[in-house]
């Protein structure tokens, strides 16, 4: 199995690239945001538990998130591998993901981070905000705060995966095709 953690600041192109990579490598793309929305919309037990925390403005506990992801992995038990998008975000979550993969006789092969200059990210997100209707993509100060939050939280994960020789930074600027080629060059070496 090939299991990847795809990372990058807001606007780096993770969603776009995940679509290409899942097709090329026949992997299952697991977006934490999509998993949360699905569980909440379908009122699963885990979705309702997560919603109870979110409704109070609290963070959903790691174990609830891990349980949701485990259910997604189980649903796709014949998969050739997974692309985890938006998870892990903390050291504890990275360890929990390692345990989950270990229980499946597998492992995370690489954390690949799309690296993009902040000013380009701001431009991309403002552009996306004009077409997506997402409020968090319309306000430059919110965008800059989201980018800062990303860097504050992912430095820990960069260290975590670097210590395992599994961290790869990839230039996320250029055409979609060029970025996909750079990502593929890393994946093909794993």
UniProtKB/TrEMBL annotation:
Belongs to the adenylate kinase family. The keyword Magnesium does not apply. One of its GO terms (molecular function) is AMP kinase activity. Pathway: Purine metabolism; AMP biosynthesis via salvage pathway; AMP from ADP: step 1/1. Its EC number is 2.7.4.3. GO terms for cellular component: cytoplasm. NCBIfam families: adk, PRK00279.1-3, PRK14527.1, PRK14528.1, PRK14531.1, PRK14532.1. Keywords: ATP-binding, Cytoplasm, Kinase, Nucleotide biosynthesis, Nucleotide-binding, Transferase. It holds the Pfam family ADK. It is found in: Cytoplasm. The gene is adk. InterPro entries: Adenyl_kin_sub, Adenylat/UMP-CMP_kin, Adenylat_kinase_CS, P-loop_NTPase. Monomer. GO terms for biological process: AMP salvage. It catalyses: AMP + ATP = 2 ADP. AMP binds at residues 32, 37, 58-60, 86-89, 93, 134, 146. PROSITE patterns: ADENYLATE_KINASE (PS00113). SUPFAM superfamilies: P-loop containing nucleoside triphosphate hydrolases (SSF52540). Consists of three domains, a large central CORE domain and two small peripheral domains, NMPbind and LID, which undergo movements during catalysis. The LID domain closes over the site of phosphoryl transfer upon ATP binding. Assembling and dissambling the active center during each catalytic cycle provides an effective means to prevent ATP hydrolysis. ATP binds at residues 11-16, 128, 174. It is an enzyme of class 2 (transferase). Catalyzes the reversible transfer of the terminal phosphate group between ATP and AMP. Plays an important role in cellular energy homeostasis and in adenine nucleotide metabolism. It comes from the Bacteria. Residues 31-60 are annotated as: NMP. This is Adenylate kinase.
């Amino acid at each position: 199995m090939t299991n990847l953690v795809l990372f990058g600041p807001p606007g780096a192109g993770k969603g776009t690239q995940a679509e290409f990579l899942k097709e090329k490598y026949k992997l299952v793309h697991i977006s934490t945001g999509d998993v949360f929305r699905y569980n909440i919309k379908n009122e699963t037990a885990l979705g309702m538990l997560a919603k109870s925390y979110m409704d109070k403005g609290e963070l959903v506990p790691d174990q609830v998130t891990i349980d949701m992801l485990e259910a997604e992995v189980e649903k796709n038990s014949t998969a050739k591998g997974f692309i985890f998008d938006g998870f892990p975000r903390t050291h504890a979550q990275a360890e929990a993901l390692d345990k989950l993969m270990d229980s499946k006789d597998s492992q995370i092969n690489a954390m690949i981070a799309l690296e993009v200059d902040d000013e380009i990210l701001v431009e991309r997100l403002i552009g996306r905000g004009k077409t997506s209707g997402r409020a968090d993509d319309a306000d430059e100060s919110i965008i800059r705060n989201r980018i800062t939050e990303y860097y504050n939280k992912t430095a820990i994960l960069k260290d975590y995966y670097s210590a395992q020789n599994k961290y790869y930074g990839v230039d996320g600027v250029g055409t979609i095709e060029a970025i996909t080629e750079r990502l593929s060059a890393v994946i093909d070496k794993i």
